[in-house]
Design goal:
81 residues; mainly alpha; 0% strand; flat
């Protein structure tokens, strides 16, 4: 039963103001993404963004082709045995 009495103390320590302060990175990101350098916004984040974009587009195109293939197969009449 003692461990239940310690929960409020532990919770208040977890959310206290003496915890380490995190640096706000938003202004730096805003400068990066608002910069007029001719790049589209989906690749301004660097190499990781480019790889994620290309992987997403590859999966999308492959899925579309796969769906169209099976629509074509389903639309063909079956041979009667």
């Amino acid at each position: 039963m003692n461990h239940l009495l310690k929960v409020p103390v532990l919770a208040s320590r977890a959310f206290s103001s003496s915890a380490r302060q995190l640096r706000n990175k938003v202004p730096e990101a805003q400068k990066l993404f608002q910069e007029d350098n001719g790049l589209p916004v989906h690749i301004k984040g660097g190499t990781t963004d480019v790889l994620l974009y290309r992987a997403t587009m590859t999966i999308t195109v492959a899925g579309t082709c796969y769906s169209l293939y099976w629509l074509l197969v389903a639309s063909m009449p079956q041979k009667k045995a």
